[in-house]
């Protein structure tokens, strides 16, 4: 998979604990670079590097105020990442719910033969 | 039924079956069985479009059909690992840049079995234990936050 698709960029941005902490700080409301640097005990330059990664991933936007450029959390890319998991989990849940019913049906129909199916012999360990 | 907490970008789905492992494995690898359950709710999987060539490199294809509007969702998988009746792994090259799914079948020794389905399309480099450990806790927070939006 190429590193340029949106999901990869989102996951790469989220892979760093500092960047996740920055997002958690921004979730309730916007903050400036200086405000972000303070609790993390990091230089403004180091925080700015993280902000660039987050901005490229679309996880934050920066304000236009030339001096402060406040950062704002953008939830949309994250929703994409969360949605991926929810969507696939739902498919497996529904699929296996149906398999559960199917297994009950076939085991009722052939209770004696299913314990030792001829096609898939298991090794005794 | 147990659902494990998913990591960001990957999915682990654990389930215990009141059925022997060989039978559950057979259900997952036989068109006659797959057609009964493969499509999720509201989606059918006609048997004539199911291919299970049970060997590494073999095809695992289905066409799921939406019962409501007839829309078709083809799956074009290729098996990369086949260990009867313990493990199945297949890849779908055309899904979201390449998706790998593996299902492990654990014999619980009392006529029951447990399956662990694992699905991911996230590149290996992002799946280090370090990044996963961190993602797990923040995923909880972010999911909780997103739920409030």
Task: Give a quick set of tags describing it.
heterodimer, A: 125 residues, mainly alpha, Arc Repressor Mutant, subunit A, 5 helices, 2 strands, rod-shaped, disordered C terminus, B: 149 residues, alpha+beta, Alpha-D-Glucose-1,6-Bisphosphate, Chain A, domain 4, 8-stranded antiparallel β-sheet, 37% strand, globular
The tally of helices of chain B reads: 3
Strand order of the largest sheet of chain A: 1-2
What is the string of SSEs of chain B from the N terminus onward? EHHEEEEEEEH
Approximate strand percentage of chain B: 35-45%
Poorly predicted regions of chain A are: 113-125
**Number of DSSP helices of chain A?**
5
- Number-wise, the strands of chain A total 2
Commentary on this structure:
The complex is a heterodimer of chains A (125) and B (149). Helix content of chain A is 59%, strand content 5%. Chain A is mainly α and 125 residues long. Chain A has a domain at 6-75: Orthogonal Bundle (Arc Repressor Mutant, subunit A), CATH 1.10.10.10. Chain A has a two-stranded antiparallel ribbon with strand order 1-2. In chain A, strand 1 (60-62) and strand 2 (71-73) form a beta hairpin. Chain B is α+β, with helices and mostly antiparallel strands and 149 residues long. Chain B has a single domain, classed as Alpha-D-Glucose-1,6-Bisphosphate, Chain A, domain 4. Chain B contains three helices and eight strands, in the order E-H-H-E-E-E-E-E-E-E-H. In chain B, strands 1, 2, 3, 4, 5, 6, 7 and 8 form an eight-stranded antiparallel β-sheet that branches. Chain B is globular, with a radius of gyration of 17 Å. At the A-B interface, helix 1, helix 2 and helix 5 of A face strand 1, helix 1, helix 2, strand 8 and helix 3 of B.
State the gist of this model.
Chain A is mainly alpha-helical. Chain A is built from five helices and two strands; from the N terminus they run ααααββα. In chain A, β1 (60-62) and β2 (71-73) form a beta hairpin.
């Amino acid at each position: 998979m190429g590193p340029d698709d949106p999901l990869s960029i989102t996951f790469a941005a989220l892979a760093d604990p500092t960047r996740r902490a920055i997002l958690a700080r921004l979730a309730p409301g916007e903050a400036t670079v200086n405000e972000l640097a303070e609790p993390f005990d990091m230089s403004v330059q180091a925080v700015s590097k993280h902000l660039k990664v987050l901005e490229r991933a679309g996880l934050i936007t920066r304000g236009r105020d030339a001096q402060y450029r406040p950062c704002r959390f953008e939830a949309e890319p994250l929703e994409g990442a969360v949605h991926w998991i929810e969507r696939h989990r739902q498919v497996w849940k529904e699929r296996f719910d149906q398999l559960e019913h199917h297994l009950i049906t076939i085991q009722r129909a052939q209770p004696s033969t299913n314990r030792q199916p001829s096609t898939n012999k298991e090794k005794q360990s | 039924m147990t659902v494990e907490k998913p990591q960001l970008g990957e999915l682990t789905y654990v389930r215990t079956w009141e059925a022997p492992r060989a039978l559950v494995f057979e259900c997952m690898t036989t068109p006659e069985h797959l057609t009964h359950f493969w499509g999720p709710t509201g989606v059918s999987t006609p048997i004539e479009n199911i291919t299970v060539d049970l060997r590494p490199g073999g095809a695992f294809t289905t066409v799921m059909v939406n019962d409501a509007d007839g829309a078709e969702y083809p799956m074009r998988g290729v098996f990369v690992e086949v260990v009867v009746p313990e493990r199945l792994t297949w890849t779908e090259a055309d899904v979201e840049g390449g998706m790998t799914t593996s299902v492990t079948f654990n014999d619980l020794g009392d006529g029951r079995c447990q399956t662990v389905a694992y699905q991911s399309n996230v590149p290996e480099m992002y799946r280090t234990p370090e990044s996963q450990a961190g993602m797990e806790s923040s995923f909880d927070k972010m999911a909780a936050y997103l739920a409030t939006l």
